[in-house]
Amino acid sequence: MIPCQRALFDIPADVAYFNCAYMSPLMRPALAAGEAGLRAKAQPWTIPTTAFFEDSERARALFARLVGADAEGVALVPAASYGVATAARNLAVRAGQRIVTLADQFPSHVYSWREAAKAAGAEVVAVALPEGCDATPPVLAAIDDACAVAALPHVLWTTGAKLDLVAIGARCREVGAALALDLTQSAGALPIDFAAVQPDFAVAAAYKWLMRPYATGFLYVAPRWRDGAPLEENWIGRAGSEDFARLVDYRDAYQPGARRFDMGERANFALLPAAIAALEQLLAWTPDAIARTLAAKTAAIAARARALGLSAMPEDLRGPHYLSLALPEGAPEGLPARLAAERVHVSQRGRSLRVTPHLYNDDADADRLIDALARLL
Ligand SMILES: Cc1ncc(COP(=O)(O)O)c(C=O)c1O
Fold first, then answer.
1. Taking Cα atoms as reference points, which of 250, 344, 271 lies closest to residue 305?
2. Distance 106 CA to ligand 1 centre (A)
3. Any atom of ligand 1 within 6 Å of the Cβ of 79
4. pTM of this prediction?
5. Is 287 exposed, middle or buried (0-12, 13-18, 19+ CB in 10 A)?
6. Main-chain dihedrals φ then ψ at residue 158, nearest 5 degrees
7. How many CB atoms sit inside 10 A of residue 306's CB?
8. Contact status, residue 117 vs residue 169, Cβ threshold 8 Å
9. Cα(254)–Cα(72) distance, rounded to whole angstroms?
10. Using CA atoms in the order 295, 297, 298, 299, what is the torsion angle rounded to 10 degrees?
11. Which of 179, 186, 284, 348 is exposed most, by the fewest CB atoms within 10 A?
């Protein structure tokens, strides 16, 4: 169990922030690194040309270590949607085939697939998850010979329902379907075994559980797709881009690995140092220990919320870091805004409150949440 890490964050004592699934607070070391990076841009002669490469490579390697993937397969992307669009550009979909998603999946992991399906004469199906049941069996049943791509999250953003990605990866290989994952609501807080899952593509927006600044996401690309087509053609993705004097000796070859999929201006001098500081801290904590610690926090809150009439999904069916509390009949409208007025911050998705803590939350935060719910419900 990791002890409370609130001192690393700029969170006033009277704020109970349970909304990491919306946006994590930037930790102090990341903020300091970002400020120093932004200041360097005021004196560009202090930024060496090697800086265009070093921070990118460090961020790539740290993310790979955090999720247990190989660094050569990691690309730096601005958003989950960018990574999903890259996957959709490279994965073949034929007329009559199906792309399997979940009902209520996050839109950034839906729209590119809709376009791909429209272009191919294929269909996107959204698997409905019966409430309170294991999400994996209906998904496995939908992945059959007609499935071109299973485009799925590890943890569903609305309810926290968790998929068994090892079983889903095996099923995809069995029927010849590709697997394109959105790890935005899991990477950093829930371990994943890349070697066992074997996704074709996996994307993560990083401003939630990866605790990075906005617009610093990742795309993992499996070895078989690394010679694929990037979304854009930028100068730094081409072979020899380290030699600034010869950039107009235009080259057909790309940088090795998944670097061709990096976004333009990936070497962001303010955001990357902040992102690296956050990744270093997450690695020091380890996703395993984060998951264990957050499992205890969510279980304790679920038990107390149950006494107030709010029901939670069983622990083995949800992400350990993710709590979705079904509101009882007669719960007032606008509950998140009423809670926010008391400096307690959660989200509402449908008729459920989404409570997503992190290591900065302490027992006093949980007391404030439960006391406020008891008063407002
Ligand atoms: C599951 C999931 N994917 C992606 C995103 C963010 O998408 P993008 O990076 O395309 O803005 C979110 C934001 O809430 C999310 O919950």
1. 344
2. 6
3. yes
4. 0.97
5. buried
6. -80, -50
7. 12
8. no
9. 13
10. 80
11. 284
